[in-house]
């Protein structure tokens, strides 16, 4: 039995080491199984086996030597329970609020095997972060748009975390970290029409047909496992805003999707609970006194979900982007009876930094494609990454996706897709929250205009507005029939030092096509 078990593990390790994820016929061996056997493997083989047991194996060249040595490898080592003398005297994960179970209490790797893995990464990683691939440098000036930055003539911190354009009125709804929502009249120079105080930071909103709206609040914005987020329904009685809590104890939620997933005529909610070490993606079904939760994925990193009949069988499925370790684009196929089957469409390595995605027909072939931006740079490896940017994965007609275009962009964090220039194809706006400030021209907001040939031409603003762009929305703000853009600023200095200057929470890109 021992020989049979060992043979099975060796075969599994061989498959993990040699085959790409799409071709694997069996799951990788568990950490517990690997730890129980004396493996006679080299560093690369051990990395293939151990890393693939949790996520896509990261290649050494994605990070520089120092980042591997000082940040990423020590954390990975402690996650699999191997503590060394140099760790003593430092704060342990549980001392920093990490939930029990995230870091193993017992060593799941032998010291000599870990040393081989570390040597493999140190020998093959570059001395410094690799540069971006050659790319088309953006032209200065965004064609077809008039760019401005409204000044509200008051002192307030620029900490915008939510921007939405009302689809009927064109009013701008601005939410900030200071627990306020401002309703702005875009036809009157963004005059403040109304304001709403919230218990915690507002992050997403869905308007209802009965003059009410559902508001998703994040709880704690900084990385956290706290379940302080909620969804509340708001309505106005006279001059007073009233609210009723619909869902509570959400783990740092960041996105809300609303649709009827079970076909009972009532709107349900999918909440992306990003969290930190804990998190999940869940459907909350309406119809009962307490909504029924159906957990689609009990992992942190849920970033955005979309309601769509992906398999064309007549009911709604869920398409979603997951960040954190098990990064990728997934679909949960509705099988009826509140049961969903998970399918992986795209998988990325754990330092990929998935930030946002859209599902649109980019090349006008009748099939929707996946567009992903990656640039989250707030975790262990806070260095410039040449794989950050905009990725287009084309649909081959069978809901299989292959990358067809990539534009390097440091810190790419959000995307809006629409036919901004009115020529019948899809254009992109992409913002960066973690740009390389040394680049000329500045590339913290890029407009990618698609040509008739399907090529994307990049443009950046000629205006040098002060701001650190975090959130973005598109819509017809001035009700003239074309698509405008608003980009919200979140400035770290305001967060830590308080308000010291005029409140300029966003820039407005007015589409002048009509």
TrEMBL record:
<dbReference type="InterPro" id="IPR009056">
    <property type="entry name" value="Cyt_c-like_dom"/>
</dbReference>
<keyword id="KW-0349">Heme</keyword>
<keyword id="KW-0479">Metal-binding</keyword>
<dbReference type="Pfam" id="PF13517">
    <property type="entry name" value="FG-GAP_3"/>
</dbReference>
<dbReference type="GO" id="GO:0046872">
    <property type="term" value="F:metal ion binding"/>
</dbReference>
<dbReference type="InterPro" id="IPR028994">
    <property type="entry name" value="Integrin_alpha_N"/>
</dbReference>
<dbReference type="InterPro" id="IPR036909">
    <property type="entry name" value="Cyt_c-like_dom_sf"/>
</dbReference>
<protein>
    <submittedName>
        <fullName>Repeat domain-containing protein</fullName>
    </submittedName>
</protein>
<keyword id="KW-0408">Iron</keyword>
<dbReference type="GO" id="GO:0009055">
    <property type="term" value="F:electron transfer activity"/>
</dbReference>
<keyword id="KW-0732">Signal</keyword>
<dbReference type="InterPro" id="IPR013517">
    <property type="entry name" value="FG-GAP"/>
</dbReference>
<feature type="domain" description="Cytochrome c">
    <location>
        <begin position="38"/>
        <end position="125"/>
    </location>
</feature>
<dbReference type="GO" id="GO:0020037">
    <property type="term" value="F:heme binding"/>
</dbReference>
